[in-house]
């Protein structure tokens, strides 16, 4: 199958709202003002509502209530704003995926968990938000395959849903590429930064990358941790668990410590639930 043709077809089906493209364009220009961004966002009431709800959630933890978009932009900054606009829209973009083959609530819980865990493990404040977006979007290639090829996807997921490596091999055999490769190509066509789609492309085997990519190491482990915690809801993860889940060189490279592991246990779950409540389709701002 032609990967590029499938990406092009998917682009026509799963397109971001125009306001998200415009926000990205304004921020990428490097000379936009907060007022320009505010007016753009206010043109989309649904996005405005979701952004304000996110800004007031424990995800940020601001002590004062944020009631205006302009105040939200001033507090969270342009880079965070772009990522929140994307996060607020992505669940709606993919809301038409059939639930016959995949539990969408579980899918988004895992995706958000991966993003927040990756954000918590980020080594530099400047890479935290791209790590969240990489985690949030890392699995959408599978949604595209389910939408485009439901029969083939059904056979793959029904026979090997507990083993990601087996699924990847089955995808490669059936389609000539994996959902990970499809995801990276699709995110590239969405005009996301190369730092995001290249990281997503290396998510399964970060140590096989030609260049040392700490972002890919973080994403790889965040996905594993998110899956582990989803399967062990009542158990806190510890350093021994993490060491057992990944290759030694990944653990050593990331230099994880007890403080980060404690953050994953105490902060992540609260942020995951808040983010899920904020970005799921149909979410509105409370009127209190």
Task: Describe the structure in your own words.
With 288 residues, this protein is mainly alpha-helical. It is 69% helix and 0% strand. It contains 17 helices and no strands. It has helices at 3-13, 18-29, 34-42, 45-55, 69-93, 104-121, 128-137, 140-148, 150-160, 164-175, 179-189, 194-201, 214-231, 239-245, 248-254, 258-266, 268-279. Mean pLDDT is 86; it is low at 283-288.
Short description:
The chain has helices spanning 3-13, 18-29, 34-42, 45-55, 69-93, 104-121, 128-137, 140-148, 150-160, 164-175, 179-189, 194-201, 214-231, 239-245, 248-254, 258-266, 268-279.
The CATH architecture comes to Orthogonal Bundle
Query: Mind telling me the CATH class?
Result: Mainly Alpha
Integer count of domains? 1
SSE-based structural type: mainly alpha
- What CATH calls the topology is Hypothetical protein af1432
Number of DSSP E strands: 0
């Amino acid at each position: 199958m032609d990967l590029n043709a499938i990406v092009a077809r998917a682009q026509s089906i799963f397109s971001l709202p125009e306001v998200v493209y415009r926000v990205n364009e304004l921020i990428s220009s490097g000379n936009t003002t907060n007022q320009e961004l505010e007016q753009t966002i206010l043109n989309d009431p649904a996005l405005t509502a979701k952004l304000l709800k996110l800004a007031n959630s424990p995800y940020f933890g601001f002590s004062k209530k944020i009631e205006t978009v302009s105040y939200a932009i001033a507090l969270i900054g342009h880079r965070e704003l772009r990522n929140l606009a994307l996060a607020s829209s992505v669940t709606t973009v993919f809301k038409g995926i059939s639930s016959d083959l995949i539990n969408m609530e579980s899918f988004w819980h895992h995706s958000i968990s991966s993003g927040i865990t990756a954000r918590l493990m980020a080594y530099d404040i400047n890479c935290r938000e791209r790590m969240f977006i990489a985690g949030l979007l890392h699995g959408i290639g599978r949604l595209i395959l389910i939408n485009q090829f439901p029969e083939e996807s059904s056979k793959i997921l029904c026979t090997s849903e507990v083993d990601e490596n087996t699924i990847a091999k089955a995808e490669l055999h059936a389609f000539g590429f994996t959902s990970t490769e499809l995801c990276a190509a699709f995110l590239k066509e969405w005009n996301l930064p190369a730092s995001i789609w290249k990281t997503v492309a290396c998510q399964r085997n970060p140590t096989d990358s030609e260049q040392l990519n700490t972002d890919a190491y973080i994403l790889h482990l965040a996905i594993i941790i998110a899956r582990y915690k989803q399967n062990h809801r009542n158990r806190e993860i510890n350093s021994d668990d993490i060491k057992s889940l990944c290759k030694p060189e990944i653990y050593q490279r990331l230099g994880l410590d007890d403080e980060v592991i404690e953050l994953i246990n105490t902060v992540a779950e609260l942020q995951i639930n808040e983010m899920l409540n904020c970005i799921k389709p149909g979410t509105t701002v409370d009127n209190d």
